[in-house]
Amino acid sequence: MVAPLLLAALLAAIPARTPAPAPAAPGVVRGRVVGLELTSLTKSRAFLFLRVALASAPPADRQTFRGDVLLWGVPIPASLPIGAAVQQLPRGADAVLLLDVDLARVPAAVLQKAQGDGLDVAVRGTLEGKTGKVAIRATGTLKPGTPALKGPPALGAVLARFEGARLSGLSLRETRGEARVALLNPFSFDLPVREITYALVSGGRTVASGRRTGVRIHGGRTNELTLPVEAPNRELLAVAGSLVGSGGTLQGRLVGFVTLKLGTADVKIPFDVAGKIEVTR
Fold first, then answer.
1. DSSP for 41-54, written as a single string
2. Is residue 223 domain-resident?
């Protein structure tokens, strides 16, 4: 349950600040980083669009960027050269860099240097088209909850797998049980978790819920976790008809948040995965 690069998923939860201007440099075109979008995610790679507003750029639609993209001052391992789609504007140019990031090579310093006041992004290198080449420098702090920073609404089947839940031991007031989830951490480093809060949902109704603390999601592997849950019997009674017709098994979802300890900030990452809920005596 670790995304975004985790990145776009964890980053979308961080409050932002006003971006500082890029420092002046002779012969360098200045710009602003104005958007980051996670377009696709696999178990090993993240594909992103990074949008940069530049004062000028060579007049060619398809260009190549060579240089560094940094998060919180740390270079990320994007495959080079980086393709760029450039659109000329009445004042300046819009460049979208097409990033292909190897998640296993993302340095742990990204986690350590993350700040609670926004996603700081910097671009430094050269942009080259058929008609010329120019050095560029751009910085920006992207604000979550706006079109500037886009990612999936919740982590799904690529990084998380709900392996089922079992509720048993009926009492007068509540039923207890556990849910099983497998979480893939594609990074080479461990992710420290402050807490995981979650609920089992079936037919639009919360059947059970719980909370677990003191977890580490180990790097470079799938982590299998058992999550304790409690179900008020009034909720089970509300879905009793479905239980009778399905032999004690409900189709449901495990939804909730993983709260990561990132640098100076805590970041909540939502998850939502489908599975089966078994209810027994």
1. E-SSEEEEEEEEEE
2. yes
Residue 53 · residue 32 · CB < 8 Å: yes
Q: Count CB neighbours of 123 within 10 A.
A: 25
Q: Contact at 8 Å (CB) between 47 and 79?
A: no
Tally of domains within the chain: 2
Burial status of residue 227 (CB atoms within 10 A of its CB: 0-12, 13-18, 19 or more): buried
Containing structural domain, residue 257: 160-279
Domain boundary among 126, 150, 174: 150
In a domain, 24, yes or no: yes
Q: 233-258: string of b/e by CB count within 10 Å (b at 16+)?
A: eebbeebeebbeeeeeebebbbbbbb
- pLDDT digits (tens), the chain, 281 positions: 444 434 444 444 444 444 444 444 558 999 999 999 999 888 899 999 999 999 999 998 999 999 999 999 999 999 999 999 999 999 999 999 999 999 999 999 988 888 766 789 999 999 999 989 999 999 999 877 778 888 776 666 778 899 999 988 656 577 889 999 999 999 999 999 999 999 999 888 898 999 999 899 999 999 999 999 998 877 666 665 555 555 678 889 999 999 988 877 788 888 899 999 988 76
CA-to-CA dists, residue 188 to 121, 126, 165, 178, 184, angstroms:
22, 29, 29, 29, 11
